[in-house]
Amino acid sequence: MTKRQYLDELEAQLYFLEEAERSDALREFESHIDDTIAARADLGEEAVVDRLPPPASVAARYYAEAGPEASDGERDRERDREEGRGRGGFSFGGLRSMFSFARREERELSGGADGVDRVVIESVACDVSAKTGDAFSYVVRGRWSDETAPRVRRDGGSWRIDCGPDADELELVLPGSVVELIANGASGDLGLELPPAASAMVRTASGDVSCRASGGVVELTSASGDVSVSGSPAAVRVGTASGDVSVDGASGEARIDTQSGDITLRLASGDADASVRSASGDVAIRLAQGAAPELLAESVSGDVSAPGDRVGKGPVGSRIVASGGPGRVRVKTVSGDISVR
Predict the structure, then answer these.
(1) Which residues, at least 6 apart from 341, have a Cβ–Cβ distance to it below 8 Å?
(2) In sequence order, what E strands does 41-144 have?
(3) Backbone angles phi, psi at 24, to 5 degrees
(4) Longest Cα pair distance anywhere in the chain, in angstroms?
(5) Would you give the DSSP letter of residue 232?
């Protein structure tokens, strides 16, 4: 992407600002781009631009710090001017930090050990991938300064990797000795393959999450982004505000709770205990072959298709129940269709 293309996209993303403020912000940003291109003549314009955050991310940060709610009072405005901030307290020092990142060369931190049974990951905007292997190892890549470098700490068989704000990606290899993986992040995608019987607890604000597990418990919490779980986990618990959810192969407990987004759930066992709740979005559940669980499926506004007796159909919603066992399936939506088969 060229500088002009980047600035044009940023201008479109800053639609919430008045024209004069938008022009000031773009001029300031362009000045930083020009300074960085001059400082890194070895890279060239497009390479420098490729190192910058996406225009949508810059605009989201600007909105959070300097959006429609301006600072009230002359004292606040005076302090903003003295500290080099725009309306609402946006710091152009923050912009300088972005461009310091663009000027840095990529760095790498790696290591490994035996006897690892627990891994904890803290990340800001880092993509995380994990695969199974014979020995534990990690590789962190990014363009960090000495102050924002990733930190790795070991306490017995437990390893903690704090990726810091400037890491781009973390790659892990997890041996069979690992029984638990915990990951906390603000943004960035996570793709995890767990060793047999290992459990995972993932909490992220945004970014897609995928996890393949065999025998362990998988617990995923996300504000936004798609979530998928595959394999044969002993239990699955998913909570999201928005984004599609796909669980393929739940054999025990399955708990899915989302505000918006479609849900797809395949049960691998006839005695699985499933509970699904959604405010909006369609829900599709496929039962294990030959299974006839106790069933309750109801939607306030939406069609319900399931094996059982229809209890209600009309302006207040649709409800289907069926007796059976040993498994239980409970599905409730406010809006959206339900299909159980």
Answers:
(1) 285, 286, 287, 305, 306, 307
(2) 107-113, 118-123, 127-132, 136-142
(3) -60, -45
(4) 73
(5) E
- Angle at which helices 19-39 and 92-103 pack, to 10 degrees? 30
C-alpha 229/C-alpha 63 separation (Å) is 33
- Amino acid at position 168, single letter: D
- Buried-state track 237-253, b at ≥16 Cβ within 10 A, e below 16: bbbbbbbbbbbbbbbbe
Ordered by where they begin, the domains of the chain are 3-103 (no CATH), 105-207 (2.160.20.120), 208-341 (no CATH)
Separation CA 265–CA 327 (nearest Å): 15
Residue 68 has pLDDT above 60, yes or no: no
Burial (CB count within 10 angstroms: exposed 0-12, middle 13-18, buried 19+), residue 331: buried
- Beta-carbon contacts of 133 under 8 Å, excluding residues fewer than 6 positions away, are 173, 174, 175
State the pTM of this model. Answer: 0.73
**What's at 334, amino acid-wise?**
V
What interhelical angle do 3-13 and 19-39 show, nearest 10? 150
Q: Does the pLDDT at position 76 exceed 50?
A: no
Taking CB atoms within 8 Å and a gap of at least 24, the contacts of 255-261 are 261/226
Checking if the pLDDT of 59 tops 60, the result is yes
